[in-house]
Structures are given as C-alpha cells and as structure tokens.
Amino acid sequence: MLEKKLAIFGHICIIGGCYLISWGIYLLPVSEPSPIGILTKPLFWGLFSIFGGICANMHSSCKCIQMKKIKK
Prior knowledge:
Elements: H1 2-27, H2 35-39, H3 42-60, H4 63-71
C-alpha cells in the first residue's frame, strides 16, 4: 500500500511541477536575475517538484520499499 501512495504522490508532484514551470516561463520576462529572485519564482520550484516527483516514483518501486513489504 505504501508504494501506491508514494507513486500517487510522485505523479501529483510532477503535475504540480509542470503547472509551476509553465507559470514560471510566463513570468520569465519580468523576473530579476538575483539569487533571491530565482529562489522565489515558480520556475525553480517547478523543477524542484518535478525532480522530487520522479524520485518518489522511482523510490516507490525500489527494493527498500519492497523489502519492507516482504518482512511484514
């Protein structure tokens, strides 16, 4: 059950990240290239969310999760 929840969470993160990247690209012409400006824009958080979602999806089928299921 844990692997299904983790896979669903990963897919939600990827979908949310795609939305944030689209929004960030729309705001790109008016953004400022300072470190704080980059960290507060949705483009950065969209990339962060997409890579986190990919990590969650890969981890949902990882041996460490599967071994927890076998040990119980």
